[in-house]
Amino acid sequence: MLGWVSTGVGALMALVALRDIFHTIWHPSGRSGLSTLLMEGVWRLGRRGRRRRWLGSFTGPLAMGLVALTWLLLLQIGFALVYLPHLPEDFVYGSGVDAADSGVADAMYLSATALSTLGFGDIVPTTPYLRIVVPTQALVGFALLTAAVSWGLQIYPALTRRRSLAVRLAQLRRAPTRDIVRASPSPLASTLLLEIADRLAGLRADLTQYSETYYFRDHDDEASLPAMLGVALDVADEARRSADHDVRYAGRLLDVAIEDYLAVVDDHFLDRGGSVREIASAYAEDHGRRVVTAW
Questions:
Q1: Is residue 39, in this structure, part of any structural domain at all?
Q2: pTM value?
Q3: Nearest CA to 79 among 145, 142, 10?
Q4: Residue 208's closest CA among 276, 151, 264?
Q5: Which residues contact 291 (CB under 8 A, 6 or more apart)?
């Protein structure tokens, strides 16, 4: 009975890890339970550091590392619990390995070597059931390594796109943007507004699919979208007062893009409600920033 309980608990732990990996990395728009809880926990702990500007920039990488380590431990301990009831009877031990002292340490060792795909061969299963389980764990370990690499390859391009838009908004703040928007006719202004709206739509998709990007805080205001989003709001407000119909339309489209982006931020991370500017302010505050105005 204890053997079945150990096997059941171990299998459950492995399934929890595999489900979490799938929903975090490969399921579009997925927000898995375990990784989300861990990242939110690290984010909350880092709030004091964000105010002091020393820990905040490490919150995202730290949270991702903790999630990956949790997946690794769940798989290692889970498979070790599966092997434990079968030690030493259902395994052949190599020379120099004392089967009489087998127990938790050997189960963890076997699980670690299988998960890391090292496979030293000093502890080999003999029953058909275990001869399937051990290679399967090696395949899972290879999949975990691939998943961790692909996760990073997905996250950092999305972060680059977010920072790039923040820098563009900072440049608009330093340039005579208000004069361009007020001019009539102003084809340059409408083109500029449509470009920002298009990039915000892309960032909304990034944030929905790669929610982990929210937990990355940028080093300075000019690279921080939570801070520079106020510039986009001010430019859109100015465009609505333009005499040029195309500029007014582009300004309204930018308004909608900002509203949609902040709606995702509020629904998934803040749960504050309120006006668009109130949500923008809460977004900046959660990242240890203040909303920057255009002029």
A1: yes
A2: 0.85
A3: 10
A4: 264
A5: 226, 227, 229, 230, 277, 280, 281, 284
Q: List pLDDT tens digits, range 226-248.
A: 999 999 999 999 999 999 999 99
Compute the distance between CA of residue 281 and CA of residue 268 in angstroms, rounded to an integer: 16
Cβ atoms of 245 and 186 within 8 Å: the answer is: no
Nearest to 83 by CA among 121, 124, 122, 116: 124
Q: How far apart are CA 82 and CA 180, in angstroms?
A: 68
Owner of token pair 């609505």: 240
Which domain does 24 fall in, by range? Answer: 2-147
**pLDDT range class, residue 55, cuts 50, 70, 90:** low
Answer yes or no: do 13 and 48 share one domain.
yes
CA–CA dist 207, 49 (Å, integer): 23
